[in-house]
Amino acid sequence: MDRRIEGIKVKLLVSACLVGCRCRYDGKSYEDEILRVLVEKGLALSACPEVLGGFAIPRPRAEIVDGTGEDVLLRRARVINENGEDVTPQFVRGAFKFLDLAIKNNIKYAILKDKSPSCGVYNIYDGSFTGKLKQGRGVSSALLRKWGIIIYSNGQIK
After folding, report:
1. Torsions phi, psi for 4 (to 5 deg)
2. Which of 90, 88, 94, 78 is nearest to 140 (CA)?
3. What is the tens place of the pLDDT at every residue in 17-63?
4. Helix (H, G, I), strand (E, B) or coil at 153
5. CB of 69 closer than 8 Å to CB of 99
6. I need a surface site. Which of 34, 39, 60, 131 has the fewest CB within 10 A?
């Protein structure tokens, strides 16, 4: 899909929850008005890698256990939900679909929701389901970065 407005191609991929899509695990969103307007004007493309991976809304919380998104991609860590179920395959599938959107639209930049097991840029939850954070990327963030897409956290745009 080639979305253009006055000759400007879409150049930015944004976590869907940041533009008002109620796609978080708890059915909520974190709307940023500027990002929402960019999507409305066709200057940014939004998607949720967890929904792309096949998850319903709402869904049980999930965290990366024993590593980071990079480790998940290398099969050295897993994504487990709060019920103890391994949901790694859905996170990896969603990450590759998210990457595919970026590649097909020649997108070089992304603004993602930090702390997420998919989109975390600098921090993710530590896998203990206690609210404790650790440094690291989510699965989708790690994959986009590996493919050379420049990633920013939603906190960097405030």
Report:
1. -130, 145
2. 94
3. 999 999 999 999 988 999 999 999 999 999 999 999 999 999 999 99
4. strand
5. no
6. 131
Helix (H) or strand (E) run with residue 111 in it: strand 109-112
* 136: containing domain: 4-157
pTM of the full structure: 0.91
**What's the chain's Rg over C-alpha atoms?**
15
Packing angle, helices 88-104 and 139-146, rounded to 10: 40
What's the number of domains the chain is made of?
1
Looking up tokens 């006055």 gives: 6
The token pair at 27 is 């059915």
pLDDT in tens, 104-155: 999 999 999 999 999 999 999 999 999 999 999 999 999 999 999 999 998 7
